[in-house]
């Protein structure tokens, strides 16, 4: 096996050392719950009667007899989300597959599944990031019945997989397997969709043309085909070994897709107590989280994972920081060009070699730790390609070469030598920037600030023709404590149109951008956020700001003493910011951690110095 890159080893050891106390506490928790037998044997007769009353007779017999393992299913099914609509029939398939391997399966509970595509630019987006923590809580309630010897998690999209992962790790004495649904077939090419969005923003096409393009892009059940947060989630589950290998990008409704789902059931049963007991909390360790960062950088994945990876890692007792992302990015080559980093979609990526080829290349370059563990053994064992043999999943070696080097390349000939995500730091705070789809001549922007306290103000200024110039848009009061840290992807058409006109523009914000964003240089997740007195609250119109993605600078041309003496702008909650349930989330906004530590309600998994929220 190829020796591990020394920088990867260094980052892994640093995370282990930094997290020694929190990881030890976590392991003590899950080892204290290690089962002696099937979980339901601890329940009283009345408890068990309630838990089995609704089951089919064949399952009830086994549940009451306690002779078979029982698998809990957490489902994010709803039929509004294209990605989650295929899950409608999964419980029936899972129950049948479980019986065939001498097990039972029950839907333990459902979790909300919010679509950022539906709420993008709308008020409901203010609940999006916090939905991750709600999903974790709902999963915990579902699993707290303590009837289960393992769990299957049905979820794909942006906050859903991270929320499910947080809960799964808190029930880390159980084995867990994640079960994807796959991407929809390709529709209107993503670059054409983006072009029409920009034309609409400029007033050159009407709403009918925009709606036609959107409907042709998002047209059937399955995950959206661009490489945003949802598909980045699926990549993470592959490199962390939480999927049956190669399950991420097989389309819904195919024989192989159903076979992969049945294989997931079989595998989680094999990992239960009295069999090859493999608790997830022991399986996932620091190597797993470094592998996640390597996969993110190598594929040009979503910036949202600079929030989600620290939040998920904290649930397993590990403290992951932005410096870890930066160091991994420095030595991880960009191997993929998938929209928005290129014209291809995930179906093209899958056909060109997909995750098995990427993992093979990263393992061969010593960047992916093959000794980390997954549900099928080591991560080296996961670099396989699934296929159907006599109606069941079989595996073959990953392809040795790319099917299309315009989409995916070997580590020896990457698209760029460094990863797709970089850290920024300076007088304006710490943040991240995605550079994999930003042209090299746009990675350094120095221009006057134009300050906005919400995204609608920027849109209004664009429509009024006030932004036809070089400028850095500072959009503040968009962090977790202010309004839940909504994505600001709705700004992309306007800013993209200005950049296409030749203006040098950039975005600096304590908010987020969509996983599909990237054309515009954007310093995002800037911490500390303005609502908690961060430096962005002191920026004024006309201040010269320098965003340098090459050196990692986020600077302002203002005497430090003058800048500090400025009275910070005060966050004024929108008096109309009620309704759509937003008023129910005050406790989340008040207690969310800093963006650079995950923006999570569960900060107690990751103590900050002095116990402050930052």
From TrEMBL:
Binding of [4Fe-4S] cluster, residues: 157, 224
PROSITE patterns for the chain: ILVD_EDD_1 (PS00886), ILVD_EDD_2 (PS00887)
Record GO cellular component, one term: cytosol
GO biological process: D-gluconate metabolic process; Entner-Doudoroff pathway through 6-phosphogluconate
MF annotations from Gene Ontology: 4 iron, 4 sulfur cluster binding; metal ion binding; phosphogluconate dehydratase activity
Transmembrane segments: none
Involved pathway(s): Carbohydrate metabolism; Entner-Doudoroff pathway
Gene3D superfamilies assigned: IlvD/EDD C-terminal domain-like
Protein name: Phosphogluconate dehydratase
Organism: Henriciella algicola
Species classification: Bacteria, Pseudomonadati, Pseudomonadota, Alphaproteobacteria, Hyphomonadales
């Amino acid at each position: 096996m190829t020796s591990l890159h020394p920088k990867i080893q260094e980052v892994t050891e640093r995370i282990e050392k930094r997290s020694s106390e929190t990881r030890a506490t976590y392991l003590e928790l899950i080892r204290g719950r290690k089962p002696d037998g099937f979980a339901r044997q601890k329940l009283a007769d009345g408890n068990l009667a309630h838990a089995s009353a609704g089951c089919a007779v064949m399952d009830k017999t086994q549940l009451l007899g306690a002779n078979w393992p029982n698998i809990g299913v957490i489902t994010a099914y709803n039929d509004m989300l294209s990605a989650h609509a295929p899950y409608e029939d999964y419980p029936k398939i899972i129950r049948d597959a479980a019986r065939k391997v001498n097990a039972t399966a029950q839907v333990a509970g459902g979790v909300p599944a919010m679509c950022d595509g539906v709420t993008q630019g709308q008020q409901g987006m203010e609940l999006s990031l916090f939905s991750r923590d709600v999903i974790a809580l709902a999963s915990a309630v579902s699993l707290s019945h303590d009837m289960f010897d393992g769990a299957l998690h049905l979820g794909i999209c942006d906050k859903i997989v991270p929320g499910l992962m947080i809960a799964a790790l808190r029930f880390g004495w159980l084995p867990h397997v994640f079960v994807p649904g796959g991407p929809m077939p390709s529709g209107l090419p993503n670059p054409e969709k983006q072009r029409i969005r920009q034309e609409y923003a400029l007033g050159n096409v009407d709403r009918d043309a925009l709606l036609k393009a959107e409907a042709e892009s998002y047209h059937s059940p399955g995950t959206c085909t661009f490489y945003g947060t949802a598909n980045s989630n699926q990549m993470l589950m592959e490199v962390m070994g939480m999927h049956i290998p190669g399950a991420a990008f097989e389309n819904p409704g195919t024989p192989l897709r159903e076979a992969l789902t049945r294989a997931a059931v079989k595998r989680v049963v094999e990992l239960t107590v009295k069999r090859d007991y493999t608790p997830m909390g022991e399986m996932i360790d620091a190597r797993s989280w470094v592998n996640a960062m390597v996969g993110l950088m190598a594929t040009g994945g979503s910036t949202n994972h600079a929030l989600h990876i620290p939040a998920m890692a904290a649930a397993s007792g590990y403290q992951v920081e932005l410096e870890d992302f930066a160091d991994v990015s420095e030595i991880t080559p960009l191997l993929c060009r998938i929209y928005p980093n290129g014209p291809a979609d995930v179906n093209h990526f899958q056909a060109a070699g997909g995750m098995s080829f990427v993992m093979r290349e990263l393992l061969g370059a010593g960047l992916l730790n093959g000794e980390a563990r997954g549900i099928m053994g080591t991560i080296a064992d996961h670099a396989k390609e699934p296929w159907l043999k006599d109606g069941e999943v079989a595996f073959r070696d990953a392809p040795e070469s790319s099917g299309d080097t315009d989409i995916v390349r070997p580590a020896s000939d990457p698209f760029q030598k460094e990863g797709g995500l970089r850290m920024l730091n300076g007088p304006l705070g710490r943040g991240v920037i995605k550079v994999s789809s930003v042209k090299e001549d746009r990675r350094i922007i120095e221009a006057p600030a134009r300050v906005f306290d919400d995204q609608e103000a920027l849109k209004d200024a664009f429509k009024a023709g006030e932004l036809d110039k070089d400028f850095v848009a500072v959009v503040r009061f968009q962090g977790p404590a202010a309004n839940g840290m909504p994505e600001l992807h709705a700004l992309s058409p306007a800013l993209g149109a200005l950049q296409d006109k030749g203006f040098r523009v950039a975005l600096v914000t304590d908010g987020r951008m969509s996983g599909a964003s990237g054309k515009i240089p954007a310093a995002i997740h800037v911490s500390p956020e303005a609502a908690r007195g961060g430096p962005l609250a002191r920026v004024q119109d006309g201040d010269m700001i320098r965003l340098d993605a090459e050196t990692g600078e986020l600077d302002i041309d203002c005497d430090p003493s003058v800048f500090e003496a400025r009275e910070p702008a005060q966050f004024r909650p929108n008096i109309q910011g009620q309704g759509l349930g937003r008023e129910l989330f005050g406790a989340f906004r008040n207690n969310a951690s800093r963006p650079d530590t995950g923006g999570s309600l569960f900060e107690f998994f990751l103590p900050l110095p002095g116990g402050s929220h930052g």
